[in-house]
């Protein structure tokens, strides 16, 4: 049996999740009639400390709706070079929102230095786009934003009259890692997007949270972007099941990532980062990278990258799978010795 470490998006719904989906009461959610969607939205809003929430098909759409609700045509948002919203969402904010991104380099810990954000805010002058929004991500590259950082950015946003959005696709991992309630991670943001389809194991679904008026405006953008779904309660039921049963267990993914990193680090050729949550990044010397990747593939260990590998642990990776993968790595280096 192969083990898929490529991403925590590869998780499949469990039997219990499928049963919850099959039993879900549903209605037409574009009319606001789906009881399962309404329940999910209320639960996530409550969990994250917001007035309202909106169920959307993907994290990409959720972030895009967030940016488009905060910003108008000709506005600008400040975002990290490494941020999913900027780098991995096909330029949607610029293409569909006519919102200019102002990317900044992420520091090693994933933050955007507050002074760099402040320096990037445009003066009120006809030469410039209007800076409206700062977008952060937590976790970012598997790292939890440091304590106090979000509050410092919030203070800047207040001082300069900007809105603050969080791409919290893996907010759950950050909360479990820090041992705090999810709403603590969400504190200070005007809007937060979370994914249920990553480590939580739902097949589809993200939720965008904000003030009531914000979510009302977001609902119109969702419809325009094609995200108004009908009997979406079948999906919302999977997400509700995930929230009940698959949040606390993220700690196992974090433990498995630490175990994996320790196993890989026994080989001095590999440059193994120390994982904070469920992602292990591994630098591999160029002269062995291709052979190493091929060896892992043949051994049924699926990962991404060659000279910079990413290994992700999740619901469908057991501790025994980690040990099997470590054994496959050991064989590669034993054979070369
Ligand atoms: C996966 C991901 C998204 C987008 O989610 P999709 O549902 O795949 O569109 C957004 N942000 C981050 C940080 C992600 O990892």
Give structural notes.
The relative contact order is 0.17. The chain is 44% helix and 17% strand. It is an alpha/beta fold and 337 residues long. It folds into two domains: 238 residues, 3-Layer(aba) Sandwich (Aspartate Aminotransferase, domain 2), CATH 3.40.640; 88 residues, Alpha-Beta Complex (Aspartate Aminotransferase, domain 1), CATH 3.90.1150. Strand 9 and strand 10 form a beta hairpin. Helix 2 packs parallel to helix 11 and helix 3 crosses helix 10. The strands form three sheets. It has a seven-stranded mixed sheet with strand order 2-8-7-6-5-3-4, with helices on both faces. A three-stranded antiparallel sheet has the order 9-10-12, covered by helices on one side. The structure holds pyridoxal-5'-phosphate. The site of pyridoxal-5'-phosphate has 11 residues, from helix 3. Pyridoxal-5'-phosphate (PLP) binds next to helix 3.
Question: How do the strands and helices of this protein lay out in sequence?
Answer:
Blueprint: E1 3-4, H1 15-22, H2 35-48, E2 52-56, H3 59-70, E3 75-80, H4 84-87, H5 92-97, E4 100-104, H6 114-120, E5 130-137, H7 149-160, E6 163-168, H8 171-178, H9 182-186, E7 191-195, E8 206-210, H10 212-224, H11 233-245, H12 250-265, E9 271-272, E10 279-283, H13 286-298, E11 301-302, E12 308-312, H14 319-336
Parallel strand pairs: 1-11, 3-4, 3-5, 5-6, 6-7
Antiparallel strand pairs: 2-8, 7-8, 9-10, 10-12
Helix pairs in contact: 1-11, 2-11, 3-10, 12-14
Pyridoxal-5'-phosphate binds at residues 58-60, 63, 84, 137, 167, 169, 195, 197, 206.
């Amino acid at each position: 049996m192969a083990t898929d470490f490529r991403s925590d998006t590869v998780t499949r719904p469990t039997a219990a999740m499928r049963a919850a989906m099959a039993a879900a009461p549903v209605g037409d959610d574009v009319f606001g009639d789906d009881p399962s969607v309404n329940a999910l939205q209320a639960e996530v809003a409550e969990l994250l400390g917001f007035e309202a929430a909106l169920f959307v098909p993907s994290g990409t759409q959720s972030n895009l709706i967030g940016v488009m609700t905060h910003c108008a045509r000709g506005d600008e948002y400040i975002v990290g070079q490494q941020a999913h919203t900027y780098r991995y969402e096909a330029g949607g904010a610029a293409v569909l929102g006519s919102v200019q991104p102002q990317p900044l380099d992420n520091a090693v810990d994933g933050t955007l230095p507050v002074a760099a954000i402040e320096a990037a805010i445009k003066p009120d002058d006809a030469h410039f786009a209007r800076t409206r929004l700062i977008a952060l991500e937590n976790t970012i590259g598997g790292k939890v934003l440091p304590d106090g950082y979000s509050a410092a950015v919030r203070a800047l946003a207040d001082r300069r009259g900007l809105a603050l959005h969080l791409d919290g696709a893996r907010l759950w991992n950050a909360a479990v890692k820090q041992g705090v309630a999810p709403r603590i991670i969400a504190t200070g943001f005007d809007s937060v997007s979370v994914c249920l389809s990553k480590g939580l194991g739902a097949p589809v679904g993200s939720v965008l949270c904000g003030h009531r008026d914000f979510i009302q405006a977001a609902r119109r953008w969702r419809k325009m972007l094609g995200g108004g779904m009908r009997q979406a309660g079948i999906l919302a039921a999977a997400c509700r099941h995930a929230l009940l049963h698959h949040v606390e267990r993220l700690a196992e993914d974090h433990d498995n990532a630490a175990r994996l990193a320790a196993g890989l680090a026994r080989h001095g050729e590999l440059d193994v980062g120390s994982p904070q949550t469920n992602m292990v990044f591994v630098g591999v010397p160029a002269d062995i990278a291709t052979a190493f990747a091929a060896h892992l593939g043949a051994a049924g260990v699926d990962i991404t990258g060659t000279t910079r590998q990413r290994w992700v642990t999740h619901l469908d990776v057991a501790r025994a799978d980690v040990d099997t993968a470590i054994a496959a790595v050991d064989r590669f280096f034993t054979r070369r010795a």
